[in-house]
Specification:
The complex is a heterodimer of chains A (672) and B (205). By secondary structure, chain A is an alpha+beta fold. Helix content of chain A is 39%, strand content 24%. In chain A, a hairpin with a 6-residue loop joins strand 3 and strand 4. Chain B has 2 domains: 37 residues; 166 residues, Butyryl-CoA Dehydrogenase, subunit A, domain 3 (Up-down Bundle), CATH 1.20.140. In chain B, a hairpin with a 6-residue loop joins strand 1 and strand 2. Classes of the chains: A alpha+beta (672), B mainly alpha (205). At the A-B interface, helix 2 of A face helix 1, strand 4 and helix 6 of B. Bound molecules: zinc ion.
Chain lengths: 672, 205
């Protein structure tokens, strides 16, 4: 037994371990996990992009969480939600955009859907068949106010980046064969595209043309655009020519441009240009590109307006100032109420051609024309061109017209009073030409030539002539030479050749004129009249007379000369003797020598008829002086003088005709 | 049921080989494993790993598990999203497997471990065989919850057909793997001896 008392059992509770040893280090694990998770969550939240909303007409192919938003083909966001706009008319696509790029998306930003497209240019964006539709956006690098709500474009812009070219606005009457995406051509090279084809609120059609850099440098404010849609077939001397600019332009139209004149200024984006129907219209139009909406006026004609069509030129006092833009018939009622039709012609005028500033308001132009009308200005139909075959509307002063005023309130445009059509002035003047040709003093010329011959005949037939001394025979011989010269060496021939030239001149005039059967015939007739003139006959007649003279003078029986002539000759001989005795023989000889010289000069210088004429003049005056000095003792003297005078007249007539024809056959024909 | 625990008998059991040693021993004489006294302090580790697993489980469910790119279409699915998609494609079997392996089992594990860690050292439940079974089930099934991660890993390795089809693991795969690993560690750190531990206050060792 062991009585040793056992110590009371000690109840001890170990001191609780300090808090730091009781807490296991393992708690760091969940703490780290929590920290990491929260950190990742916070980072992904703070890195979360900016939500923007884009309204599209439809959301074909857009899938939330998948469809990407791309900028320059780089994905910068994803569609997060697709909902509807409050009025349910469009689809609102919420896109989460990368935070770094979001500040650049300002109100200038454009968005559009990229899908595979099949067009005349080919198939594009085939990649999206597999990868699916995506949203493409474009904005510049200059962030302005950040925007979160956008409206997407219906279709991709031709060139989203405006810095990569220039876009201009083309205005046309109608779209013709133009289509969206049609090419813009410069000298056969496609340098841009058309986009955004739309109706203009002012009527007509608007389309944007985007010209890629660097070709946009070719644009100036003077540039003109025209439609090259479709193809043109022309039949000419070289056969049939078919003109197709390009296959694409055949299918979907196209626009070509060219700068015909210099001095234009640089073109800013959005500048309006007129789209002409053809290259000719573009080249010839007097309306500048600025004048897309020219000032228009209404003209009401009572008479037929044949020959007037759209595009017919309008002249303002002879200067081309506009064109006809529309023709219609307008029913009007007179004071009694009877309906009658008038031809309504709408014209467009370029203020610059009226002497006004290019950008003058329509009201100012109307006011200006009102003043002109009060001073007698009227609109009338006139013909221009050599024979007046081209019709124009002429705004010019017409005298003796009833008073009329511009009606600024007339619909659709203010009216300019009209006058009856102008008589065809040029046709009239052409007629005048032929009248002049016909009125040429041919008959007179002939008459005076014949008279001269008659005078010579009278002298020759006179018996006294038979007693003409040798010196007279010599004189007559010289006369013969002169006439021979006139005849054989030139005058007739020359006149005929001049007439040939007249004919050819007339021909050349005629060939310049189209459709002129009647006139042609009449000119031919005139030319024929010339050709048929009895020049040969005249020559023959002169020859005959001279022959008579020669034979008469050559015959031995001078006693058969008429008494009077014998007397005269005797007297002449006496006179000559007297003259010789009086020391004047030398004078007479001198005179005769002068005559001879003159005749020779005439013979030599038939080409220079005016000179001949002048020399004859001198001869006549000297002869006259001689006769005056020695008295009117001889009828022969008078006869000679008369003959010489007649010859002078005839020569001068020929001379002036020849001169006239020679100098300017055309002017001769045209009478100017 | 009255059970005599090793602790009550002044002994300490080796958690590795199961041999009991006198309470003073610091190392197992048989397998050399350190001998830890049965204490609820060890529950801290359970809870720590449990919370870590839970934290990792949240992104595992919120982030995409798989990124599937088919002919340019890229699709990212979360676990639950993938299940819904599979159901929508009438792959009910696969949907069920994925749902059970990736959602039901992890959630059940969280609940089971949390439950065990809460009720041990509770007088009322002390010495419950059901708890031991529950623990064993959790231990056994834990490795299978990696099935989703394996599927992702295998698919990512196999389905690399370039543009036609390719599969990449999403960030959730890593989170999920971590979550599973953490819960396994949590379960492993659970000292089953605690199941038999009477409430601390009543311990008369
Ligand atoms: Zn052991």
């Amino acid at each position: 037994m062991n009585d040793t008392p056992q110590p009371a059992e000690l109840h001890t509770t170990p001191a609780p371990p300090p808090i730091w040893s009781r807490v296991s280090v393992i708690w760091l694990v969940p703490l780290i996990a929590l920290a990491v998770t929260l950190g990742v969550a916070w980072k992904s939240y703070s890195d979360r992009g900016v939500l923007i909303e884009i309204d599209f007409a439809d959301a074909t192919g857009i899938r939330p969480g998948e469809t990407a938003l791309k900028f320059r083909e780089v994905e910068i966001g994803t569609v997060e939600a697709v909902s509807f706009s409050p009025d349910l008319t469009s689809v609102r696509v919420g896109v989460r955009v990368d935070k770094t790029i979001a500040p650049f998306i300002d109100d200038e930003a454009k968005f559009w859907l990229v899908r595979p497209e099949v067009s005349a240019q080919g198939i594009s964006r085939l990649d999206t068949v597999l990868s699916g539709t995506f949203i493409e956006g474009f904005w510049d690098a200059a962030p302005t106010e950040q925007t979160y709500q956008f409206t997407g474009l219906d279709r991709a812009p031709v060139s989203p980046d405006p810095t990569k070219g220039t876009w201009v606005e083309l205005r046309a009457e109608d779209a013709g064969g133009l289509a969206e995406g049609a090419p813009v051509i410069f000298r056969g090279i496609t340098v841009g595209r058309l986009q955004n084809l739309r109706l203009s609120p002012a009527g007509g059609v608007l389309v944007d043309a985007f010209i890629d850099a660097p070709h946009d440098k070719r644009l100036s404010s003077q540039t003109r655009f025209w439609d090259t849609s479709g193809f043109s077939v022309s039949l000419g001397a070289g056969g049939v020519s078919l003109d197709v600019r390009s296959l694409a332009s055949l299918v979907q139209g196209g626009v070509e441009f060219e700068t015909f004149s210099t001095g234009g200024s640089t073109v800013q984006n959005g500048r309006p240009f007129r789209l002409f129907a053809s290259v000719e219209a573009a080249r010839n139009s007097i309306f500048g590109n600025d004048l897309v909406d020219p000032v228009r006026f209404t003209l009401l004609f009572d008479d037929a307006i044949e020959g007037i069509a759209r595009g017919t030129k309008v002249h303002f006092r002879g200067v081309e100032a506009g064109e006809v833009t529309d023709i219609s018939v307008r029913m009007q009622a007179d004071s009694v109420g009877n309906q009658f039709a008038r031809q309504q012609v709408v014209i467009a005028l370029a203020p610059a051609r009226l002497g006004l500033d290019e950008s003058t308001e329509a009201e100012v132009v109307t006011e200006f024309l009102s003043g002109e009308v009060e001073n007698g200005l009227r609109a009338r139909i006139a013909g221009i061109g050599l024979l007046g075959t081209t019709r124009i509307i002429d705004l010019t002063d017409v005298p003796d017209q009833p008073e009329a005023r511009v009606n600024p309130d007339l619909e659709p445009f203010p009216s300019i009073p009209t006058a009856p059509p102008a008589a065809n002035e040029l046709a009239a003047s052409a007629e005048d030409v032929f009248e002049r040709v016909q009125a040429l003093p041919i008959e007179e010329l002939m008459a005076s030539a014949i008279r001269a011959m008659d005078s010579i005949s009278v002298v020759a037939e006179d018996e006294k002539t038979r007693a003409v001394p040798g010196e007279l025979a010599g004189l007559l011989e010289e006369l013969r030479t002169l006439v021979d010269g006139l005849n054989a060496e030139g005058a007739a021939q020359k006149t005929i050749s001049a007439l040939d030239r007249v004919t050819s001149a007339a021909d050349s005039v005629l060939t310049e004129i189209e459709g002129l059967g009647e006139m042609l015939a009449s000119t031919d007739q005139a030319a024929q009249t010339f050709a048929e003139l009895p020049m040969g006959e005249i020559g023959e007649k002169i020859d005959g007379i001279l022959g008579d003279l020669r034979s008469m003078l050559g015959s031995e029986d001078a006693e058969r000369l008429p008494r009077a002539l014998s007397d005269t000759l005797e007297e002449s001989a006496a006179l000559l003797a007297e003259l010789r005795a009086g020391g004047a023989a030398e004078k007479l000889n001198g005179t005769l020598d002068a005559t001879q010289d003159a005749a020779r000069a005439v013979g030599d210088a038939t080409e220079r008829l005016p000179e001949l004429s002048r020399k004859l003049e001198t001869l006549v005056s000297r002869a006259e002086g001689l006769v005056a000095a020695y008295g009117d003792r001889s009828a022969f003297n008078n006869e000679i003088l008369t003959t010489i005078r007649e010859l002078r007249r005839a020569t001068s007539s020929f001379g002036s005709l020849a001169r006239m024809i020679e100098r300017n056959p055309r002017a001769f024909i045209l009478g100017r | 049921m009255n059970v005599l625990t090793a602790r009550a008998a002044g002994l300490i059991g080796c958690t590795r080989c199961g041999r009991v040693w006198p309470g003073e021993a610091s190392h197992c004489g048989r397998c050399g494993a350190p001998l830890a006294p049965v204490t609820t302090i060890s529950l801290q580790r359970v809870w720590a790993w449990w919370f870590a697993g839970l934290i990792a489980y949240v992104p595992a469910n919120m982030l995409p598990m798989l990124r599937t790119a088919t002919l340019g279409h890229e699709q990212a699915n979360t676990i639950l999203g993938g299940v819904i998609e599979l159901v929508a494609h009438h792959n009910y079997g696969v949907a069920a497997i994925v749902f059970i392996a990736s959602i039901m089992i992890p959630v059940a594990k969280f609940i089971a471990i949390g439950y065990l860690a809460l009720i041990v050292a509770h007088e009322k439940f002390a010495g419950s065989h059901r708890h031991l079974h529950l623990y064993e089930v959790v231990e056994f099934i834990g490795r299978w919850s990696m099935i989703d991660v394996f599927v992702v890993a295998i698919l990512s390795a196999l389905v690399q057909l370039g543009f036609v089809a390719s599969i990449h693991p999403g960030p959730a795969a890593a989170s999920f793997a971590l979550s599973v690993a953490f819960t396994m560690l949590s379960a492993q750190n659970f000292d089953p001896r605690l199941i038999w531990l009477p409430p601390l206050g009543t311990d008369k060792a």
